[in-house]
Amino acid sequence: LKMTADSTLELENTPWLTYILENYSMYTIGPLTLMIILSILYYPAIVFFFISYSSSAFYFIYKKIANLPEDTNSEQWDKPKQVVTFVHDTIGKFLHGYEVCGLENLPEGPAVLIFYHGVPVDYYLLVLRIYRLTGRFCYSTVDHAVFTIPGLKIFLHAHRVDHPTREECVEILKEGNLLGIGPGGVREQNYGDNNYKLIWRKRKGFADVAIKAKVPIIPVFTQNIREAYRIYGNTRIMRWLYEKTRIVFFPGYGLLPVKLRTHIGQPIPYDPNITIEELVEKTKAAVESLRDRHQKIPGSIWRALKERFDWLHKYE
C-alpha cells in the first residue's frame, strides 16, 4: 500500500501485515498492553477494550482504504458503522440474549434518554439496537476521563460520544437527535450493588437541558445489569480513591452470560410549568418504577442465568 497525492491508498509490494504493524501500532501493541494490565485489576475492562479498540482499528483502516471524510456523521460512514453495529449486536445476543422492550416509546423527534448506570454495556447495546432498527444514532454523554484513554478518538466520534456542556446538549436536541445521559455516572456504576439504588446525588443538569430544549425524557432500565458485571467500589477506601483521583476502572468481575433486557418507559412529556427539581424527582420515580416492575431485588446471578432459558417454558 502507498498513500497517493489525493490521500487514497494503492497496493504496492509491501506486505499487508508489515504495513499494518508499522502504521497502526497504536491500535495493537499499546492497547493490548493496557488491556492486559487493566483486565488483571478490572475484569469487565476486557469488554470495554475489545469493543472500543477493535472498532477504532476497523474504522481507522476502513477510513484510509475507502478515503472517508473526517466528518463521521456523513453518509459515507454508514457502511462501516453498520458492520460494527451488526457484529457487536450479535455478540450482545450471544453473550446476554440481549433484548429491548418498549422501543415504540421512543418519539420520532428529539428526546433525552435517562438510564440506570451500571457497567454501561447495556446502554451501548441499546444505542446499537436503536441504530439498527431505526437508523438513528443516539448521542451519548460520558465522563471526561474516557477521553484521556489513547486510541479511542475515532471510535468516540463515530459513535457520537462526547462530554458536552449543557448548552451543547440543548443544541444536539434542537437538531432533532436523541441524547443519552446516566445521571448517576461513574459513582452509580462503582458504588451501586444488586439492590439497584439510584445514586444521583444532586445531579439535575439533564432536567435543565430537557426543559430548555423542550423535549420529553425517556426513562430506561436494564434488567440484571448488576448480575452481568459487578464492581467492588462501595468501600471507604474505594470511595476515597475515586473522589481524589476520578479513576474510572475499579476492581470487579463480569462477562457472566445472564439475561439482559432493556426496558424503555413511557415518555415524560415537556411541561413548561414544571421546575427543574420537580422534573428530576419525576424522572427518578419513573426509572425506579421500571426497576421495581422488572427487577427482583436483591438481584441474583443464578436467577438471572435461568432467565436466559425463559423461552423454553413457552413450549412446555
UniProtKB/TrEMBL annotation:
Cellular component GO terms, alphabetical: membrane
MF term (GO), any: acyltransferase activity
Regions crossing the membrane: 32-53
Superkingdom classification of source: Eukaryota
InterPro entries the UniProt entry points to: Plipid/glycerol_acylTrfase
Keyword terms of this UniProt record: Membrane, Transmembrane, Transmembrane helix
Annotated organism of origin: Salvator merianae (Argentine black and white tegu)
Full protein name: Phospholipid/glycerol acyltransferase domain-containing protein
PANTHER family per the UniProt record, alphabetical: TRANSMEMBRANE PROTEIN 68 (PTHR22753)
CDD domains linked to this entry: LPLAT_MGAT-like (cd07987)
Keyword Iron-sulfur in annotation: no
One Pfam family hit: Acyltransferase
Domain Phospholipid/glycerol acyltransferase: from-to ranges: 99-221
